[in-house]
Amino acid sequence: MTRFGIEEEFLLLDEDSLVPVALSGDILERIGDDVTAGRVTTEYLASQVEALTDPVRTGAEAVQQLTALRAAIGRQARVRRAIAAPTGAPFTTLRSPRLSPSAHYDDVARRLAHLTREHEVNGLHVHVEVPDEEERVRSLNRLRAWLPLLLALSTNSPFGNGLDTGFASWRSMLIRRLPSSWCPPRFADVDDYRTRVDQLLDLGTIGEATSLSWAVRLSERYPTVEARVADTQLTAEDAVLSALLTRGIALSSGQRIVADETETIDASIWMASRAGMTARLLDPLTGEIAPAWTVAEHLLDDIGPVLDELGDADAVRAGLARIRADGTGAARQRAAHARDGLPALRRLLQEGTGTPPD
């Protein structure tokens, strides 16, 4: 069975104000033996940590690893009166982030200049193992067509600067300002992919290929295609749903995609960022504009045989039913804040790492 891996980024927030705090180095020192599978590392900002699973074959394995990793991070954050927030962007910010110590991050910050001050964002990255390099590019081309739906289902960052932004994924709008962001072009083959990446390197927009901000790309470290469109998810189960859908699309070589122009995909990504699963999106299988849930139903019908083969069909259907009933992360954050302001939002974020207040 094809393996996959998940990377989740978490913002460390002050427990009272929900403002990002630079605690990642201290927390990593203390996690130690709490992590038995996967690992936890620093990220771009000192107010971020990243949890990475080991390669897994089933959704159940992924949920088990993510739940344990989240709990380890959450415990250490709580000792420091902080929250390891499973959200795509902070509720509010002081716009004065500190970088994690790294020559690579120093180079990124130099290129981004003032953008770094507003780049407090958390993403969910899914790696799908595809050993053949040319097939990896074909998997990327399939995934790029479905980026809007994958984002709509995973929108989880409605707030910014202490306000409701009106967007379901404010993180996506912040990411949009980066070079080589959102939907990449369709690639003819591996050589075409490498040529286009080399052009971006020559331009100086990025210092190395690992800094590409495309919402789907080839990994430079592993034999995987890596989808990066999703916000960090409120729960491990939501994260794994996104991963299983990503794997299903990546492996569905029989898909009959009829509409995948970059401009229209990006326009659909914008609508997914704005409205989540209430958006109207381009349906890659029909070329028509349709409600997001209709597009999701078409995707499920199309990749159903692959999901059945992988043993993922029941988990995916249950996950989609859960989101249809409970709402995306963005909808749940908004509902919590509307119910009781910061206390309810704080509790929701703490529950995501298994550390709700007593």
How would you portray this structure in words?
- The strands form four sheets. Strands 1, 2, 3, 4, 5, 10 and 11 form a seven-stranded antiparallel sheet that branches. This protein has a two-stranded antiparallel ribbon with strand order 6-7.
- The protein starts with a strand and ends in a 7-residue tail after the last helix.
- It has helices at 24-31, 59-79, 103-112, 133-145, 147-154, 170-175, 190-203, 236-251, 262-275, 292-310, 313-326, 329-351; strands spanning 4-14, 39-42, 48-52, 82-85, 123-129, 159-160, 163-164, 181-182, 213-214, 216-218, 224-231, 280-282, 289-291.
- By secondary structure, the protein is an alpha+beta fold.
- A hairpin with a 6-residue loop joins strand 12 and strand 13.
- Belongs to the glutamate--cysteine ligase type 2 family. YbdK subfamily.
Keywords for this structure?
alpha+beta; two-stranded antiparallel sheet; 7-stranded antiparallel sheet; 13 strands; 358 residues
N-to-C terminal Cα separation, in Å? 41 Å
Please provide the ordered H/E string of secondary-structure elements. EHEEHEHEHHEEHEHEEEHHEEHHH
Helix amount:
40-55%
What class, by secondary structure content?
alpha+beta
Report the average pLDDT across residues: 92
Low-confidence stretches: none
Q: How much strand content do the residues show?
A: 15-25%
Using the alpha-carbon principal axes, give the shape.
Answer: globular
What is the CA-based Rg, rounded? Answer: 19 Å
Summarize the structure.
By secondary structure, the protein is an alpha+beta fold. The protein is built from twelve helices and 13 strands.
